[in-house]
Amino acid sequence: MKKKGLFITLGLILLFILATVIILFIKNKKTAISQQKKEKATSLQKEKTTQLATFPVVSLEPTSKRNTLLIKLINDPQLWQNYTKLNYELMYDSDRGPRGLMGSLTPQSLSEELFLGSESSGHRVYDQGIDNGQLTLYLENQDGENINLGTHYFVVGGYKYTNKWETEAFEVSTPKKSRSDFVILVLNNSQSTTAKPAKYIISVRPLVFPLTATLTLKNITEIKQVKLGSKEVKYQFDSLNHQLKLTIDRGGEYYLN
Fold first, then answer.
1. Is the dihedral of CA 110, 55, 145, 142 positive or negative?
2. Taking a C-beta distance cutoff of 8 angstroms, is the pair 44, 240 a contact?
3. How far apart are CA 6 and CA 12, in angstroms?
4. CA-to-CA distance for 114 and 185, rounded, in angstroms?
5. Pairwise CA distance, residues 116 & 99, whole Å
6. Using only C-alpha atoms, what is the Rg of the chain?
7. Do 105 and 88 touch, CB atoms closer than 8 A?
8. pLDDT for 136-182, tens place per residue?
9. Residue 74: how many CB atoms within 10 A of its CB?
């Protein structure tokens, strides 16, 4: 009986030691994984802030082709020293439900045509009621890794007879209902440590804008200056509701700092 009790005691001690070793192993492994994740996130953030000197400014504009937009890189941010592609995902709602397109801009191809619809065996179906546009941008480096530059929002005129368009980030209104073709894209660069070329870039197309609109940005940080080219643009900033209003009556890039 004494030997049996001794064996049981030794067995319990061994089980306790084994359980302690397993717990310490799992804890150390979790700590190592957590540390790796932190180091990877820090590395990506460091790469983004040190190598990305200027945010890539893109425009979306209507074309003479039905249901076709042109996406184009319009500034020279010296991306191609460290990156090989600017990948994008374009999403929008339509009468046929959520729709999406994917593609890439490269040094050899700085623009692409985007057909808003579907095509099969030469037969095209055109999306209607296009609304709630979202454009997510990614920079791809030489190792094939993608750095997410965030999701940005746009509205497209010409698909609804209305005087108001709204996204999660901003809304556009006009005095009268219109079916004019235009695209307003708001790029949010406010989280960047350098914020170059601006905290927010409003890309408006076509350059000869077909109407006069009031644009209201939502959940915006304080802005001290709005410029279209070299010209300063008047605006109103509501610090209580974190909203900014300005009049859009011509195309181009509006830089908010």
1. positive
2. no
3. 10
4. 15
5. 8
6. 26
7. yes
8. 999 998 889 999 999 999 999 999 999 999 999 999 999 999 999 99
9. 15
Residue 48 is which amino acid?
A: K
Distance, first Cα to last Cα, the chain: 84
Mean pLDDT of the chain: 85
**pLDDT tens digits for range 43-52:** 344 444 445 7
pTM of structure:
0.79
Q: What is the DSSP letter of 96?
A: T
What sections of 108-247 are H helices per DSSP? Answer: none
Residue recorded with tokens 């074309």:
63
Residue 37 burial (CB count, 10 A): 10
Length of the chain: 257
**Distances in Å between the alpha carbon of 75 and those of 20, 57, 94, 155, 182?**
59, 6, 30, 21, 20
